[in-house]
Amino acid sequence: MSDLKLNRKQFLRMGASAAALAALSNVLGPVSALAADALSVAWWGEGDQNKRTGEALKAFTAKSGIATDPQGTNFNGYFDRLATQVAGGNPPDVFQVYLANMAQYAARGTAADLGDLLGDGKAIDTSDWSPAAKDSTGLGGTNYFVPLGLSTQPAIIYDKTLLDGLGVTLKPDWTLAEFKDTCQQIGKALSKSKQGAEAFGCDDFGGQVPVLEAFVRSKGRNVFTDGGQLAMTKDDLTEWYELWNEGRTDGWVVPPQAQQQGGFEATALIRGIAPFAVAASSKGLQGFQSLTKNDLNFNPWPRYSGDSERIELVTPVEWMVISSSTARKEDAAKLLSFLVNDEAAITAMGIAHGVPLSAKMRKQFMDGGKLSPVELKIYQNVEDALPHSKPRVIFPAGSGPLLGPGSNLLTLLNQQIAFKQTSVQAAVDRFFSEAARNL
Amino acid sequence: MTADVLMKHEPTATVGRRRRIAEANGPAYLMLIPWFVGFLCLTAIPMAASLYLSFTKYSLLAPPKWLGLDNYTYMFNGDYRYWPSLSVTAFYVFTSVPLSIAVALIVALGLNRKMRGIGALRSVYYLPSLLGGSVAIAVMWRQIFGNHGVVNSALALVGITGPAWLATPQSAPWTLVFLHVWQFGSPMVIFLAALKQIPQDLYDAARIDGAGAWQLFRYVTVPILTPIIFFNMVMQMIVSFQAFTPAFVISNGTGAPTDSTLFYTLYLYVEGFSNFHMGYAAAMAWVLLFIIAILTAIAFGTARFWVFNPDA
Amino acid sequence: MPEVPTPSIWRIPRTSTTIAVLLVIGAILMLYPLLWMFVSSFKPEDEIFTDLSVIPQHVTASNYPEGWTHLASPFSVYFINSFIIAALAIVGNLLSCSLTAYVFARLKFRWRNVWFALMLMGIMLPQHVTIIPQYIIFNKAHLVNTFAPLVLPKFLAVDSFFIFLMVQFIRAIPRELDEAAAIDGCGPFRTFLFVILPLCGPALITVAIFTFVWTWNDFFSQLLYLTSDRTLTVPLALRMLSSSTGESTSTWGALFAMSCLSIIPLLLIFFFFQRRLVEGIATTGLKG
């Protein structure tokens, strides 16, 4: 009995101290009085991006006097929260979107029409922007999106230390056939140098949307039409899946049972069993380089054949939109203009979203001498790719289940083919029937 | 329905002595006010809303549109990802629940002793469940079960070449089962408590009758523990059918490879939040509720055949 | 507090030693994955995934200060926020769940079984589909971006698991005590407060600890309702350090370092309360 009373006393004590804590921090009221009239800005960021974006927003407040309420989180969870906020009638004033769902946010009227705010000489001044940036702001003739930076997507990132060791050099204008041969040779040579341990040319890219896009574009088509239908044909997709099937059969692709789940840390490149990886150039090189001591470098996705041209894609990877329900469109536009056109913001944000949209600004940074060697490589890569870049069509609403992030049909079918659960033919049919249902 | 079963199942030792207490509607409802407010606002209304949404097409970004039964018909015939996801979930529930309960029981038996440092040992065994589904766990799990992870290194010592466990559709679900079993802390603690409750004289009496350690376990410990096993089983089943975090963090929300770890609630979440099919997700949720409710009712129905009832 | 005598199934000393050894081996196996995380928190970034051994080539403690200061606020802010939420959630659950459980366990009232069934059904529906209606309610009440959506529900007894647990416990308390209180003129509420609640000590500890652990680890609802940096909690901050797609300069070392730190409060709580936790449940009379 005395024991139990003691417990009760402790219980009360626990309660009392908790209440004291609560009183201290006045938690049940709005936590930050500032937040109510601050411009809310939501983004996802990984690694050090969150810190950098936060710093850029601070620089904006210092310059403009407009308070911001930074709402950063990481990719997993960001869109769930955003959708909930929108559905709940409480969207952030400014928020980040990306390829697979930006059309959804535009088409449903969630993103504001930037017609009077974005353009040459307007609040968000585009006059210095490269065409690759200007091409990516609209959908169906209306401007909604403000790009955050430019990257080549995809860029092939390769382990230069490893290839140098094997005496292999890459040509920027290689063809798909040469890519396959190189993968095959390197896999063998690498395996030999590692006393017969398993080695390959590259990971299985068959489920990676940007690589599929590069492949389809190398044949002269975009994945989607302007009208939001598939421009990619059944033949394209068949050829694509067959390519990776061939790679698995010939042993230059990491077989499915040897793949590892995860991000960059799980790629064959970082695990040292293959020299090639793909990613958007900006995040990619920086991310991979932070995980390995070997020297990494870029090469473009190969040309389709000997007589086709080199087609690259220089594009924003992330965009910002202004909420259509915000009462502060002008302030929001000021913020976005600052983020993409102001030197201080670009310095703070670093390379994570890509290189600056304006050629002038890029040159200024490249000549400024403050870039790290990795950053300089990324800038240089974009400059090399820009002359070969052709605009892409923004993915339409409803493309998420097919080519969206996380769990998408392209990846699922590629895995099913790899594990022989389905045939290429059946997979392609499935993809097109689901496309018809969703688009 | 469930509550009836539950209520009947309560210990009835006091029935004989219990005087029939008059209905106390006024005070009871008065004291239930906090619960009613919470239940109404945070459970009942959202549940009703989700039931309504399950009959609509709802993209989250635009108002819902009435569909009738379309979501339900598509679920049962048309959605080729639905059945695999239900079946992998069922597999998960029916393997991980008994396994984790068995492990929890065995470890609880071992930890139920006086020994130097027993508190630290109990904490160590409880530690994995404290971690929940943190990101660090996911990364760790991928490394351990990876191609060259510690599991395969250990197998290599005995001459077995293991696969990359998370990479094949056959082995990937098992890694999630292992994760669940590894985090057996909560049922273990409940078993520990139950073991402490067993009257010592039962063991003494059995020992006088010449029972050995195994017999003591089999004929004294286990029967007395059946109510606790039952409790853990039902609770774990309800929770495991809704298991989300392990699959989400380990496959980054993809359910890979080939949907082999696409748990029911993960798929529901992908449909609702990534694919903007919240109406369909709501329909999936209600079907799951129905499945869990039926299985819970069945569990309670079978309880009388195997769960020891001291009052019966 | 004296240890309750162990049921001596394993009385033979030799068996006992064997079991002790087995337990320690098992504990090491249980700990191995955590060891990997712990060691990784002391590795330089570019060795974490390229060198998988548990003996680092280079040891660095820099991940700790790096992680602590990496986000907009130092990690102490997130720890304090998590503590406040957990503490309030504990108080809320203790008060509301015990009261509600008392009513279900002891009082007879119309439709009791119906309410009880509905309460249990509430935990059978996946939370992802009720989140949006809940969000709308909290948004209408202007409580988004405060701790209220995370704490207020606890004062309204929404955790059915604990109500059920407490119901079981209260049922095991002899009714004679209630009847004696009734003779002394206590109404139901005073009976709860002065007779039942004092006897619930161990069960309340159980509820408190489980609430602490679950609240500390909760991610999704905190993600939805806490958006501004100053309000972030430990799980949210950890997610901001992690890179789920891996697409950036990684901060894995910092993530592992902070993950290790985030376990410490949980571990301390469990270690100091495990004895009591065990007793707490032992008296709940979980007889099924």
Task: Describe it.
Chain A is of the alpha/beta class and 439 residues long. In chain A, 47% of the residues lie in helices and 11% in strands. Chain A has a 5-stranded mixed β-sheet. A 3-stranded antiparallel β-sheet of chain A has the order 11-10-12. A two-stranded parallel ribbon of chain A has the order 4-5. Helix content of chain B is 68%, strand content 1%. Chain B is mainly α. Chain B contains 15 helices and 2 strands. A two-stranded antiparallel ribbon of chain B has the order 1-2. The radius of gyration of chain C is 23 Å and the shape is globular. Chains in contact: A-B, A-C, B-C. Chains A and C meet through helix 1, helix 3, strand 2, helix 4 and helix 12 of A and helix 3, helix 5, helix 6, helix 9 and helix 10 of C.
What is this entry, summarized?
The complex is a heterotrimer of chains A (439), B (312) and C (288). Chain B has helices spanning 2-9, 25-31, 33-53, 70-76, 82-111, 118-130, 135-144, 150-157, 172-182, 185-197, 200-208, 213-241, 245-250, 264-274, 278-306, and strands at residues 56-57, 65-66.
- Seen as an oligomer or otherwise, the chain set is heterotrimer
Largest inter-chain interface? B-C, 123 and 109 residues
| Alpha carbon gyration radius of chain B | 23 Å
What order do the helices and strands of chain C follow? HHHHHHHHHHHHH
Structural class of chain B: mainly alpha
Strand-pairing-aware structural class of chain C: mainly alpha
| Count of individual beta strands of chain B | 2
Number of strands of chain C: 0
Shape descriptor of chain B reads globular
- Binned, the helix content of chain C reads 55-70%
Helix proportion range of chain B: 55-70%
Given as residue ranges, the uncertain stretches of chain B (5+ residues, pLDDT < 50) are: 1-21
Radius of gyration of chain C: 23 Å
Distance between the termini of chain B: 22 Å
* Helix-strand string of chain B: HHHEEHHHHHHHHHHHH
| Residues in β-strands, percent of chain C | under 5%
Figure out the total of helices of chain C.
13
Distance between the termini of chain C: 28 Å
Can you tell me the residue ranges of chain C where pLDDT is under 50 for at least 5 consecutive residues?
Answer: 1-13, 284-288
